[in-house]
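Entry for the shared binder. Reason: the reviewer on the internal report wants the predicted structure included alongside the sequence.
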Amino acid sequence: MLKIAAAISLLLITVSPAFAQYYLRGEVKDEKQNTLSNAKILLHSTRYVYYSGSSGSFGILSTRQNDSVTISLEGYQPVGVRLEAGKYQTIVLKMLYSSANLQRNRLVSFTRNMHPEDRNKRTITGETYSSLVENDFVSAKKYPETGCAIHTDKASYSNIRRFLGMNTQVPPDAVRIEELLNYFSFDYTPPPADSIFGFKSYLSDCPWNTQSRLLFLHASARKIDPDKIPPTNLVFLVDVSGSMDMPNRLPLLKSAFKLLVDNLREKDTVSIVVYGSTVGVWLTPTSGIEKDKIRRSIEELYPGGSTPGESGIRTAYRLAKSQYIKGGNNRVILATDGDFNVGQTSEEELEKMITQHQQSGIYLTCLGVGMGNYKDSKLEILAKKGNGNFAYLDNEKEAEKVLVKELTQTLYTVADDAFLNVWLNPAVIKEYRLIGFDNKVNALADSLSEVEGGEVGSGHSLLAMFELVPLSQSFDWGYAKDGLAKVFLSYKLPNDSVRRVTGYTAPVAYTEFMELPECYRFATSVSMFAGLLKNSPYMRNINWNDAAIMADESHNPQDAIQKEFISMIAKAKKIYGNKKKKKQSE
């Protein structure tokens, strides 16, 4: 017996080290000491793969007291390190140059050589809207070059309509003038057959300032031939958390997606990912011809649980990548009230995460719904960093507009990373101001900020407006040999890295305001409406009646959207007028 016991003891001494369990612990951070979640950790001894948690930390069981790992994360340089049991280690990943460039703050518009300290600082705070600084007048002689991003976002308009529909004032930072102008189709003119974009311009009077002139720059994008629309890989990413359990949230989204399904073709593929009480694939990739199956999956969605938006986004992108169609339209459609409360929840964290997917060739469309906890700023960041667009659905009619009537503009891209560079001729212009395209406060404060190009959908019509102060009040500007302005539109074709530039020279040709095409006078009323909502210092010489009269005189009676806009001005006049009277009586 003693011999047997001794043999067993010897065996245990020999074997136990092989089965010993050691705990390798640490955390993954970037160079700014921000924690990095979901970093891939390859354990070399077993070839098993682990991931860092939401706080960047990890814990790995190993049979070795010392083991080596390779840690990688999209957008960062992979690193190999040796881990030692009992020692908590911090591993720092360095960002790849291209990713570092992508994560800089981005400007919606810019004026070349102008530094932040050259601007008047006017900061408007808002809890759920990005704080904006309205563009000022700048000297054309000192700063002749300016520019702005081109995008198809229209969310601000329908969100404003919601506020007015509730008889309440609109947060000033919720008013983005360029998105209000995007909402309308202004005199679309097909570009030349060999071009992606076509241009036209008008110079006329400024209704709110007799000393100024208005310059309208109009760019129209090519429409995709319906017979040549590429196959589509769509992933519906649907927020089914508890906060979506209201009639104007999940039920509205279900109606919206079912409308979209009607336009799917056999060569299109649809998947559904949900996040709420669980995160997962609700509908595996399904051909667009199986409409009943897709509709049933949409109808069976139900709300409940927290809002792990981060995990949902990661899952949706993984699924989109697994079904990637080369040369096709690959897109995630995120539908939510934006109230992320699990995982990465801050705008900075979400921006960093979505930037890592920016070069994947997968676009992101964001559809916002709801009220109260609706997070406009988060969805705006996600859409812009995800090379996509952003709409707000306040009712089923708006859902039909975005996902049916304007489907090709919403889902099919003709140009990426598009922005305008405009040179305004200092020989005739003293000062100028870009109307709309207001920048976020933090982007202006960042010395590394760059203008952020946008996605342009099929048949999109962009209207940029400038308020100009001429060197001379005379309209005899014909001596300006170089024209009034030179426009350069820079863009890339979808899935192409080559940057292309197309140009246009705006002539010095004055048109009496009442002789302008009606759509440009109507666009002016939209700018006036927006300026009054923002309480813009540049619109102090006009009132709601001025905006209403101009809209009424220039609107198209056959256009239901333009007729609705006139009713919105009337609502705003009632709301803001009553507020003023109340203050005066107090």
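Summary line for the report: The first helix runs from residue 2 to 15.
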